[in-house]
Amino acid sequence: MEKPEEQSESEINPEKVRAAKQRSRENEVGYKLGQSMGARVRSSAAITLPAQMALGPVLLTLAGWWIDGRLGTSPGFTIGGLIFGLGVAVLSLIRYVKEQPD
User: Fold this and answer.
1) Nearest to residue 77, comparing CAs of 57, 56, 62?
2) Residue 89 in contact with residue 58, Cβ under 8 Å?
């Protein structure tokens, strides 16, 4: 009896390997739950992103204004808080855009 010829590594179809990995992943416990939770997290990011972009600059500007009032330095910390808050908002937006699927 002849043994069937084994495939060499160069003959392995990457699509078949990817499909086999996907099937094994789908059989894991919690896979479907994780998929649905991922969709909810992505949709909730659309709600939280505007809040992050607004609250960062506002809160840090108010903190700078409070520090200026305590130290008598005006408007240094207020402007610094505003600039830092805008930077935080931009970084939050960049991170959100990078995490989006293509």
Assistant:
1) 62
2) no
